[in-house]
Amino acid sequence: MSEASSPPSPVQSEYGADQIQVLEGLEPVRKRPGMYIGTTGPRGLHHLVYEVVDNAVDEALAGHCNEILVSLCADGSASVTDNGRGIPTDIHPRTGKSALETVLTVLHAGGKFGGGGYKVSGGLHGVGVSVVNALSEWVEVTVYRQGQRHTQRFERGAPIGILKSVDDSSGKRGTQVVFKPDIQIFSIGIEFDYLTLSGRLRELAYLNGGVRIVFRDERPETPHEEIYHYEGGIKEYVQYMNAGKDPLHADIIYVNNEKDGVQVEAALQWCVDAYSDSILGFANNIRTIDGGTHIEGLKTVLTRTLNTFARKRGKRKEAEGNLAGENIREGLTAVLSVKVPDPEFEGQTKTKLGNTEVRGIVDTVVGESLSKYLEFHPQVIDLILEKAIQAFNAAEAARRARELVRRKSVLESSTLPGKLADCSSRDPSESEIYIVEGDSAGGSAKQGRDRRNQAILPLRGKILNIEKTDDAKIYKNTEIQALITALGLGIKGEEFDEKNLRYHRIVIMTDADVDGAHIRTLILTFFFRYQRALVQGGYIYIACPPLYKVERGKNHTYCYNEQDLKKTLAGFGEKANYTIQRFKGLGEMMPKQLWETTMDPNTRTMKRVEIEDAAEADRIFTILMGDKVAPRREFIEAHSAELDLAELDI
User: Fold this and answer.
1) Among 35, 94, 164, 254, which is least packed, fewest CB within 10 Å?
2) Long-range Cβ contacts of 533-539 (<8 Å, 24+ apart)
């Protein structure tokens, strides 16, 4: 490796061809790529990079690598280089080929399936770099190992020639994998998105404190490079997530210990100005977005430990009962990372950890460290308990307001908001509701809609910003009540039940101006904080109304942004006669126009709201919608160049 620093230790541990175990062939991958990478869309494309990077990170976990270079090359390929031990190149006893060729051409061949190669490892689905090879137009691998440089090229999974080895006196060691995704597989495009990859690489650097990850984009005229290197590891991750918040205690509580071969690392900090928790769980560097036994163990030990201290410090009497887990976790930001030798994941995409023994291990390890810390920092436990008790009292105060919502709920009563123009269909899977701003837009939408399956809910002005509000105020707010009741959402904190949802498409339809964007953001904040499962389930959409109507003779064209308008006008020629109508709001549009451009399933464009990175989404919502002005100003200044101010009507 040309630009990596020296590896952490020059000692070459035993790692050879006999540690590469072969489980099955490679043939099925190109036939059914979705089975191996989930999708052949953008998510699957980026998973190819993750799979190669995960191999390098596994070398870091094993203590043999401290620098990883990831490059997006000008020719559309991606390159991942590490300064680890290098893929073994000696002859594999079972295949008769080099271990490198075996790893690249045989599915489930690697050093992660038996003892000796790796103690713990991550990876996407355990299929390794062979899947990357199978789904790439070409792959070139260079290995620096034991004083030699080994190279081999592969095309669509097949080796081109044999492994070539030459003496190398540079002292380098490690592996470089360069690959170009196959357009035959990823037919919708093979262009890597910088922001998508940077988010994952930054996350990996936080999870593996001390490892230096260099990310370079060589595609622009002026190459761009970022370095992710966090000696503080997940402590710095919590700091990053809480950048826009007001911490309750300055020190981040940190736990790092091992029990029964499972390493447990956790960082926790409570914040004054947060009314929900943000807990990120990882198992072997894989984000477990659906939780699992490690998260269950953390929640259990937090509830038990803090209730014990509440009694011990006289903050809670026996007769008052225990503080609930949600009271204790209010305002908590936590990162929990476990390294498990034999992880069991539920589901092919590894979103939930299933190892039952991990629950008790996390409980024990975190419980011991947390209790010791709080014993020596009584002022911190007092602050945390005071916030938890305030949360308990606020929850009690909100209970009556919640009961009011329950009584109005569609599940117990036919009473729906008076302003709701419901659809005639009672099948949620075909029903959609448009949330619009104001009675004027609501009037046009009600007249222009398809009454069979399109409902309209007008909201009055800007709804409550729930980022700055506790539950009691949320449930007393008329517009929020209307949203909860109309959608059949139930109560915050309750597990989301799709059966209770009255519409499977919830469409936010606001004016195409700054005020409309603000209202849209407030509504998205409500969904993200109130019941995130709605967003994660893909139920939330954003309507895309046009900004302009261009008329020329008897023909007209709708333009949805400034680029559309320029393109349309350029097509008319210089001496063309035309008129431009600028829609300042949905209320200015005739019902027929609104139907044709924004609501007709045959002609409309809608954006589905998805959360690719929940932690980053959480951080951005805090910055943009929270109380602190300085982080919001910094964010706007940093990203203002990315905005087309004309589109924002500024």
Assistant:
1) 164
2) 533/496, 534/489, 534/496, 534/501, 534/506, 535/609, 535/610, 535/611, 536/289, 536/611, 537/496, 537/498, 538/608, 538/610, 539/501, 539/503, 539/504, 539/505, 539/506
Determine which one of 515, 616, 647, 649 is catalytic. 515
Has 513 been annotated as catalytic? yes
Poorest-pLDDT segment among 81-90, 400-409, 465-474: 400-409
Identify the CA nearest to 270 among candidates 247, 239, 250.
247
Which tokens is 314 given?
Answer: 């006289």
Of the residues 437, 467, 471, 479, only one is catalytic, namely 437
pLDDT digit string, tens, across residues 103-134: 999 876 665 544 445 556 554 444 579 999 99
Q: Establish whether 470 is a catalytic residue.
A: no
pLDDT band, residue 242 (cuts 50/70/90): very high
**β-sheet with 278-283: strand ranges across:** 253-259, 262-270, 332-339, 278-283, 286-287
Q: Which of 101, 140, 511, 618 is catalytic?
A: 511
Residue 452: count other Cβ atoms within 10 Å of its Cβ: 10
Active site residue 515: yes
Question: Is the Cβ–Cβ distance between 109 and 22 less than 8 Å?
Answer: yes
DSSP string for 214-229: EEEE-SSSS-EEEEE-
Greatest mean pLDDT among 12-16, 169-173, 231-235, 511-515 lies in 231-235
Query: Which of the residues 226, 357, 513, 596 is marked catalytic?
Result: 513
Using a cut of 0.70, tell me whether the model's pTM lies above it. yes
Let me know: does 187 contact 40? Beta carbons within 8 Å.
yes
Residue 493: how many other CB atoms lie within 10 Å: 13
Residue 644 has pLDDT above 70, yes or no: no
